[in-house]
Design a protein that fits this description.
InterPro entries: DYW_dom, E_motif, PPR_At4g14850-like_plant, PPR_rpt, TPR-like_helical_dom_sf. Keywords: Repeat, Transit peptide. It is built from 32 helices and six strands.
Length: about 650
């Protein structure tokens, strides 16, 4: 007889007898996860008074936890010998079915289910049996098998319950979830908290459309049924699918009367901070950080929460604060490094991003694909052509990473910004996979910078095949034609947009002041301070025009032609937002503006000049990066 409990035959030989306290000890050890001790006690326990099966279910579970298939089979044989199967002991039956399923012996689980007499077995026992097998199939990612057993359950007139649905819903293909949802609603189970939470989490996998369905489930839940899991699930459904505005609105509701006193936890706050970073919602993010410091004093031990804070600060303009949090972390993950590398890249500090990357590698952390995207993007924003080429060319040899479409997009952007358009085109031709819209879009953007209409047309033809509904690319091509004086091309592109029902996304900028968000659109007069704002913009335009050296290099537009800072070209949203900031903030404070599109060349020149005239710093986050205007210059060094 071996010492290890891998073959606990002695425990079952000769109909061993067990005492109640002894069986309770086995159950307690199993519940505590001390499975080897539970089986050892089963082997050597006191065999004195009358036999019973109280220890057998726990023993089966311990065998499964230790992957002892033969042990489960021996327990099964002993139970059958005692007449406890197939239907006399529901708890034992469930334990055996669960144990077989957990270790992947699904045929034995099905065989045990087949042996059950449907007519004489209590309904609750049957339901337990079916639920165990469905859960086992779900555990091993066998959705077809799950539904086969479920259909069999329904055919046997066995009513399903919440436990059934909690296994079935996550295993279902997304297209089948609404059907399961409908069944749950007809059975009166869809509003149960656990089922609703499961539906919300599953719908969340379906992108923006799935998030809308998740929201409907959440909204239909009674207020009293919504627990922390409910709020976290619906918040994550929106945050993970880029619906930051909706996620932040849900958080506001959670913190108000609708929340029913539910307090956010670290999972909640990670989702909220992610949405703040995406949306540029600085005020909400700062409030979350205050909450973290007051309610979660040990937050530095939570790597995910620290990463979310670093990402928020890096993407919302507080780069020194992001670095401080990073330096204070007790333990860092690859996500921690990537968030900071990406942040420095967005701010144009490519040299610091590269230094951080090298430090990360030297500390034994191997970069992943996301980290490489952040690094290559940082090189692109800073014009670090040689470094970007070197890291890209050594991805496979140095880090065992095969370049993906995102990496090729970064490289096309890097080469294009550097004026190496033909090299960028050759890289696309050499790609081992077909280029997507983002890759061709990077080339088109480079053609805009360098006024290359011919190559731009080639890129545009590919783009409209891949992303025919993306209006931004049509606008970009139209702007290339405008810059090169091809008005017939502008007319053609605009006609295409009309035929396809496409409209240019309106530019908007916003600034937070005293807890309120002030949103501005181009030529927008809806703000209460509109008269004062427009008067200030006009006055500043005149001052810029009169300033010596108002004409400057057109590097921001990517060509050799000089670009005059002309007054009153248009009241673009970032000009209005900055003017509001100048009127309402204290002298010397930095004005932070978030814009949904790229800053245009005229506004870039205007903000540089005004930062010198007003002796103020402006931090503008546009669709691709940060621009910090101070003393008449921009942090991008006109390389954008």
């Amino acid at each position: 007889m071996v010492a290890e409990p891998s073959t606990p035959a002695a425990a079952f030989a000769g109909d061993a007898n067990f005492t109640e306290p002894w069986s309770a000890q086995v159950r307690t050890l199993t519940r505590l996860g001390r499975h080897r001790e539970a089986l050892a006690l089963l082997r050597h326990g006191d065999p004195s008074p009358p036999p019973h099966a109280l220890a057998l279910p726990s023993a089966a579970i311990s065998c499964a936890a230790l992957s002892l298939s033969s042990g489960i089979s021996q327990i099964h044989a002993l139970a059958a010998k005692r007449g406890l199967l197939p239907a006399a002991d529901a708890y034992l039956l469930s334990a055996l079915l669960t144990s077989y399923s957990r270790i992947g012996r699904l045929p034995l689980a099905h065989q045990l289910l087949d042996e059950m007499p449907l007519e004489s077995t209590p309904h609750t026992t049957l339901r337990t049996a079916f639920n165990s097998v469905i859960s086992g199939c779900a555990l091993h990612a066998l959705p077809s098998a799950c539904f086969t057993v479920f259909r069999r359950m329904r055919a046997a007139s066995v009513r399903f319950d919440a436990v059934t649905l909690l296994a079935l819903v996550p295993a279902a293909p997304l297209s089948a979830v609404p059907q399961v949802h409908a069944l749950a609603a007809r059975a009166g189970l869809a509003a149960e908290t656990s089922v609703a939470n499961c539906l919300i989490s599953t719908y969340a996998r379906g992108g923006a459309a799935g998030a809308a369905l998740a929201r409907r489930v959440f909204d239909e839940m009674p207020l009293a049924s919504r627990d922390l899991v409910s709020w976290n699930a619906v918040l994550s459904a929106h945050a993970q699918n880029g619906l930051a505005v909706d996620a932040l609105e849900l958080y506001r509701r959670m913190r108000g009367p609708d929340g029913g006193g539910v307090e956010p936890d670290a999972v909640t706050l990670v989702g909220v901070l992610s949405s703040c970073a995406h949306q540029g919602a600085r005020g909400v993010g700062f409030d979350v950080e205050r909450y973290v410091r007051e309610r979660l004093p040990s937050f530095r031990t939570n790597v995910q929460l620290c990463n979310a804070l670093i990402n928020f600060h890096a993407r919302c303009g507080s780069l020194p604060r992001a670095r401080q949090l990073f330096d204070e972390m007790l333990r860092r993950s690859i996500v921690s490094w990537t968030a900071l590398i990406t942040g420095y890249g967005m701010h144009g500090h490519g040299d610091i991003a590269v230094s951080l990357f090298e430090r990360m590698v030297s500390e034994g952390i191997r970069p992943d694909n996301v980290a490489m995207v952040g690094l290559l993007s940082a090189c692109s924003h800073a014009g670090m052509y040689d470094e970007g080429r070197r890291y890209f060319s050594t991805m496979e040899s140095a880090y065992k990473l095969r370049p993906t479409l995102e990496h090729y997009t970064c490289m096309v952007d890097l080469l294009g910004r550097a004026g190496r358009l033909e090299e960028a085109r050759e890289l696309i031709s050499s790609m081992p996979m077909p280029a997507d819209g983002a890759v061709w879009g990077a080339l088109l953007g480079a053609c805009k910078i360098h006024r290359n209409a011919e190559l731009g047309e080639e890129a545009f033809e590919h783009i409209i095949e891949l992303e025919p509904r993306n209006a931004g690319y049509y606008v970009l091509m139209s702007n290339i034609y405008t810059d090169t004086g091809q008005l017939d091309g502008v007319a053609r592109v605009r006609a295409m947009m009309r035929e396809r029902g496409l409209k240019k996304e309106p530019g908007c900028s916003y600034i937070e002041h005293k807890g309120r968000v002030h949103l501005f659109m181009a030529d927008d007069h809806s703000h209460p301070q509109a008269k004062r704002i427009y008067e200030l913009v006009i006055r500043l335009e005149r001052m810029v025009k009169e300033k010596p050296g108002a004409r400057e290099s057109g590097a921001a537009e990517g060509g050799e032609k000089e670009v005059a800072v002309q007054p009153l070209i248009g009241f673009h949203s970032e000009k209005l937002a900055v003017a509001f900031g100048l009127l309402n903030t204290e002298a010397g404070s930095e004005i932070v503006v978030i814009k949904n599109l790229r800053v245009c060349g005229d506004c870039h020149s205007f903000l540089k000049a005004v930062s010198g005239i007003a002796n103020r710093a402006f931090l503008v986050r546009d669709a691709s990066r940060f621009h910090r205007f101070k003393g008449g210059v921009c942090s991008c060094k006109d390389y954008w």
